[in-house]
Every structure is written in C-alpha cells, then in structure tokens.
Design brief:
Largest sheet: 5 strands, parallel
Number of helices: 7
Order of helices and strands: EHEHHEHEHEHH
Strand content: 15-25%
Strand order of the largest sheet: 3-2-1-4-5
Helix content: 40-55%
Number of strands: 5
Shape: globular
Radius of gyration: 16 Å
Structural class: alpha/beta
Bound molecules: 4'-phosphopantetheine
Length: 176
C-alpha cells in the first residue's frame, strides 16, 4: 500500500469563513491528497475571539451542512487538529507532503511567498500548494468579518450559518 498523501491546511480560523470551507472542499475534490488535516494555530501571543475548542467545534458543525465535507470527515479524510510552534514541525510529525494555503488577492502574495519559501527551507518534504479564492470570496477574511460584525454590519453569508450565530453571540456578550 502506498503512503497516504497528507496535506496540512493551517490557519487561525478565528472564525472559519465561507472562503476556508470553499478551499477545503476544492482541495478534497481535487483528489491531490488522501487526507487533509486542518491545523488550527495555537498562538499565545495573538489575541483571539474564539478559543481553539470553539473554532474546532464551529468547523465540525459547519461541515454538517456540507455533504462533501461531512462525508470526508466521517471517512477520516478530513481531520481537525491544533498545533503550537513551527508549522513545519507539525507538518513533519503528520508526515504531510503538502501545505495548503488560500490566496485571495495580490496583497496576500508577498506574505504567503515568504512563508512558503521559509517553510520549504525548513522542511523541503512538504510543498506549499495555493488555491485561489473564488472571486466572490476574494475579500472575505476572518479579521474583516469580526470587525464588521462588532460594528453592527451584516456578515451573514460570509461565514457559515453556525459561525454567524456564534459571532453574533460574541457581539451580544461584548454588549456592543
Ligand atoms: O490564518 P493565518 O493567520 O493567515 O495563518 C497563519 C499561519 C498559522 C499559517 C502562520 O502564522 C504559521 O504557520 N504559524 C506557525 C508558526 C510558524 O511556523 N511560523 C513560521 C512561518 S514561515
């Protein structure tokens, strides 16, 4: 039996957006990988809105509404995990041969290029593969979604429905 082709899809996912789910679905559909591990970064230096457990639970719940992602999760082709420290150390431990990243706009490119080069230098065994965000999601980011939601703007449709509910609950809890 050949070695499974495992890809790691790292990110903050604070919170997961429709863009994240779209990249995941397309990466699975591409059949380039046997397994994808969603790796939520644990960064003690970065203030986050949702805990790691909340983010993992939101992803899991969002997959329920998406048959392809739901099936992949049940089949073990999709896993949700968290990591701390260097991404490449985690990728190596997972025996991953690929790192998946989404690219939205030219503004993403410079940062992503640097990370891809650095990660390849540290761990040449994993290639960074980019998926272009759909044009309709090209402006969607976790950061902007939070900012708009906390300022009373409508973010429905930019995040999965369950994430929207969780985000609105945070807005209410904050008394905004
Ligand atoms: O969703 P994000 O915040 O754009 O994801 C960034 C992430 C998690 C991919 C990046 O910050 C990362 O890889 N962090 C782990 C620490 C690390 O390996 N740093 C060196 C990157 S070259």
């Amino acid at each position: 039996m050949s070695t499974p082709r495992t890809a790691v899809y790292p990110g903050s996912f604070d919170p997961p957006t429709v863009g994240h789910l779209d990249i995941l679905a397309r990466a699975l559909h591409s059949t380039a990988f046997d397994n994808i591990v969603i790796a939520i970064v644990r960064n003690p230096n970065k203030k986050s809105l949702f805990t790691i457990d909340e983010r993992a639970a939101m992803l899991r719940e969002a997959f329920e509404a998406n048959p392809a992602l739901h099936d992949a999760l049940n089949a073990g082709r999709l896993q949700i995990d968290a990591f701390e420290g260097l991404l490449v150390s985690y990728a190596k431990a997972q025996r991953a041969t690929a790192i998946i990243r989404g690219l939205r706009a030219v503004s993403d490119y410079e940062y992503e290029l640097q990370m891809a080069h650095m990660n390849r230098r540290l761990f040449p065994g994993a290639e960074t593969l980019f998926f272009m965000a759909r044009d309709e999601y090209s402006y969607v980011s976790s950061r902007l979604t939070k900012e708009v939601a906390f300022m009373g703007g409508d973010v429905r449709g930019l995040v999965p429905e369950n994430v929207y509910a969780a985000l609105m609950a945070k807005v209410r809890d904050a008394g905004v």
